[in-house]
Design a protein that fits this description.
Helix content: 40-55%
Number of strands: 18
Largest sheet: 3 strands, antiparallel
Number of helices: 21
Oligomer: single chain
Distance between the termini: 8 Å
Length: 551
């Protein structure tokens, strides 16, 4: 099926068109409320707009859920709170909940109708939509000029369609990044790999998992190690990122086992294909040849890390932000740690992270009921400034210029030398998140490429730049926009189906199941558990909603 210009999703097209008007209105008339025809209804009691600081003439307080992280617990005297109030004249009435209990508390408050106005740190809003307690925020984004500017300037319309529900609306304001992140990859002992004869510079730009296999063999031959690689995260990160290069799903990215075929414009069940067989065969080969520790799929993270820190192993999957901490814990003199670009595979040299969306903010219907339309729009414009303007994002991440950071003439940010964050200034005595409240997960997500890079060490910047220059971005798959009844039926199929796939993935890899003799029975059982039924529902739903999605 050929895509035409006319098939741009209706909801997103309207959102962008109205948003562009809203951005213009906010620049020209931030002292008046625009009505439906673009005129002014009455004078405002606050200022707002693209490139402007939101500020209310009168003090305002909004109720908000707050996910309290145990590593930087909330403090009433954080500079974060006073800095927001100084800029905007807004304070929060916080419902502070421990991070580990946040999802349960959120569900309780939303489903009971007692939710605060602002509900940040939301990763999956799907379960809250049917209850009617959450605002379909895509109906209101035209009043948020900074948000709409990011959508337009960064081309976020295709990213945002992943959030659409069966009614063509979305119910969460996601964090939006101009560029995708580097994500998880493999930290290796560069000193050992190079001594073993692995030419990283020659290989890294174009290597595949088969090249990585050959490199692991060289390291094993050189070191005589029992295992070259013993993984953390019970192997789920590794299985997830490798699955991308094989065109299947696994680990953290197991999901529903489907992939979208851009040629046929249909969903396929990937995890019973020959691609999937090649995928599990690859990792089984690593285990059989003593390259990958089979305990990788059962051990806890500290056990995996201890093997690496002692020098017993030389490869481990991790996130770059943990690297600086790992370097301090190495028990091997002169160990040189290096994050490699993820290997490619049969489907190409593909970027792992493609979505530029993060967790986001739900808005409770209580806000609209209790504030009324005009004051509700005012709250949205405050949210627009704090979470989506460059000024607000910089404040949330870095704090107050001159107090926690400095900025040069080119806009480059330097953290004050007595403050540490994210591996920057590791010897400093003050922590940006613990002592000041900045850089926390409730506020500090989303922003420009420059802002994203500003929080990285030089090594992490290099890692991200290598990925962006050496790997190809993937096309985002469309969402399956089932209604509540359809989604429930699909979940009833998917749960036992994917539990079986997950179990057999590990059995194939570790040799508990024989790929040569057990593969056909595995495929048959996948079918018995409903893979074809799930696919039929997925494609029927897609065919009903594809115009809305721009197909």
């Amino acid at each position: 099926m050929r895509r035409t210009k006319k098939t741009l999703g209706a909801a997103l097209a309207v959102m962008i068109a109205v948003g562009m008007t809203a951005c213009t209105d906010s620049k020209e008339s931030s002292s008046a409320t625009p009505n439906s025809t673009g005129g002014a209804e009455k004078a405002l009691t606050y200022s707002f707009g693209e490139g402007k600081t939101f500020h209310s003439n009168e003090p305002v307080s909004y109720s908000m859920m707050y996910s309290d992280h145990e590593n930087y617990p909330n403090k009433k005297d954080w500079r974060l709170w006073s800095a927001i109030q100084e800029k905007t004249n807004v304070t929060f009435d916080l419902n502070v909940t421990a991070r580990t209990e946040y999802e349960n508390k959120k569900s309780l408050l939303v489903n009971s109708g007692d939710a605060p106005f602002i509900i940040p740190k939301t990763y999956d809003e799907s379960s809250f939509v049917a209850g009617g307690q959450i605002v379909p925020i895509s109906d209101w984004v035209q009043y948020m000029p900074n948000y709409m500017k990011a959508v337009k300037d960064w081309g976020m319309d295709k990213d945002l369609r992943a959030k659409l529900k069966s009614d063509g609306k979305y119910y969460v304001l996601p964090g939006m990044w101009e560029v995708a992140g580097g994500g998880y990859s493999y930290v290796i002992r560069k000193d050992i790999f190079e001594k073993a004869g692995v030419d990283l510079k020659a290989l890294e730009g174009k290597w595949t998992y088969e090249d990585f296999y050959e490199a692991l063999k060289k390291v094993k031959a050189f070191t005589g190690a029992k295992y070259v690689w013993s993984d953390e995260f019970t192997g789920k990160s590794t299985l997830s990122i490798a699955a991308v290069e094989y065109g299947v799903t696994g680990g953290w990215g197991l999901a529903n086992g489907t992939r979208f075929n851009e040629q046929t414009k249909q969903f396929e069940f990937a995890n019973s294909t020959n691609d999937f067989k090649d995928y599990v065969t690859y990792f089984n080969k690593l285990v059989k040849e003593g390259l990958l520790d089979p305990e990788s799929f059962t051990q806890d993270d500290k056990t995996a890390q201890a093997k690496f820190f002692k020098g017993d192993t030389y490869v481990m999957n991790t996130n770059y932000q943990l690297l600086s901490d790992f370097k301090t814990k190495m028990q091997v003199p002169n160990a040189d740690l290096y994050m490699v670009v993820q290997p490619g595979g049969p489907k190409g040299l593909l970027q792992i992270e493609t979505s530029r969306l993060e967790n986001g903010i739900m808005i409770s219907q209580n806000a609209l009921k209790k504030l009324g339309k005009d004051k509700f729009i005012e709250m949205l414009r405050f949210i627009d400034w704090l979470w989506y303007s460059d000024e607000g994002q910089t404040l949330s991440l870095w704090g107050v210029e001159g107090e926690t950071y400095t900025k040069d003439a080119s806009g480059n940010i330097t953290l004050k030398p007595d403050v540490t964050y994210n591996g920057i200034n590791p010897q400093a005595t003050k922590k940006l998140n613990v002592d000041f409240g900045f850089g926390g997960g409730v506020f500090a997500y989303g922003g420009s490429a420059k802002l994203k890079m500003s929080k990285m060490t030089e090594g992490e910047k290099d890692f991200n730049n290598r990925i962006l220059s050496l790997r190809k971005a993937r096309t985002l798959a469309p969402p399956i926009m089932g209604n509540a009844e359809e989604s429930e039926q699909m979940n009833l199929i998917s749960k036992p189906l994917m539990d079986y796939v997950d179990t057999m993935t590990l059995k194939f890899i570790t040799g508990q199941a024989n790929i040569a003799t057990d593969w056909n029975s595995y495929v048959a059982q996948v079918e018995t558990l409903g893979a074809s039924r799930y696919l039929k529902m997925s494609n029927d739903i897609f065919n009903k909603t594809k115009n809305m999605l721009g197909y």
